Amino acid sequence: xxxxxxxxxxxxxxxxxxxxxxxxxxxxxxxxxxxxxxxxxxxxxxxxxxxxxxxxxxxxxxxxxxxxxxxxxxxxxxxxxxxxxxxxxxxxxxxxxxxxxxxxxxxxxxxxxxxxxxxxxxxxxxxxxxxxxxxxxxxxxxxxxxxxxxxxxxxxxxxxxxxxxxxxxxxxxxxxxxxxxxxxxxxxxxxxxxxxxxxxxxxxxxxxxxxxxxxxxxxxxxxxxxxxxxxxxxxxxxxxxxxxxxxxxxxxxxxxxxxxxxxxxxxxxxxxxxxxxxxxxxxxxxxxxxxxxxxxxxxxxxxxxxxxxxxxxxxxxxxxxxxxxxxxxx
Length: 330
Hints:
By secondary structure, the chain is an alpha+beta fold. 27% of the residues lie in helices and 25% in strands. The chain has helices at 12-21, 23-33, 35-38, 95-103, 120-137, 158-167, 190-199, 203-206, 216-229; strands spanning 6-7, 42-44, 50-57, 76-83, 85-93, 109-110, 178-180, 210-214, 251-255, 264-268, 273-277, 285-292, 295-308, 317-320. The longest helix has 18 residues, at 120-137.
């Protein structure tokens, strides 16, 4: 075995070739990296700028037979725009540093082990995956600002969309798609609050398989509260509870890091939480260039955006949390 020491090197041309060959999977990697959250939602591919998603509402009814029966049209199509916004990144990276990160400290200098060195595809994948972390953190709180410089400025998240609908009174207590909690959540009352949310759902929403999109803190308090109040029940054989008690296993807790510290939770079926992206058009691209010695620049561009399929009470319930009191433990 040779003891000769080599430096792992991947040429600029190899990076450029990898970016060309693996363009589509590389552009999808930020979404895959955010899958711990996006797995609870429904992705719509091929959305560039905007697409209308529609729901039909009708009050058509059967009635006792009459040959002359003719009813006025009662069917309405309600459209919502799923908007995706074009965003880009130009990220400088020092290739050898990324390789050391992948193979371990000092791994940039290997003997025959060089044959196991990361490919250009793996190095680019590592960088693209890092973009997904920032995307995942702002899926609800992002607010579109065309002059901004962060992922939080790229699109309107589900929370921002809900805020606008509340402002316009399209989401309200009166319409049945908003609930305002009066109690601060604690590890004593979390189960009761979860049941209050469950019992407050429209019956058409309640009969569907839904997620309660909440913070990890709420899920932790729910487990603590459940342990304290259901310890003597035979079927309580584990600490972590996936479903809200009394829902018939239809309302699943979905604790999301991006909802930590927010003032709203959401109940909806997975099909109502839409995100759009476009990995099909030539506008979306990824490329690698060298503009300075030792440093490469990865440039990528893609579309992304969020929307509710419907905000009707039969498809969505927004839960506005009670404000935490000063010094409280909520």
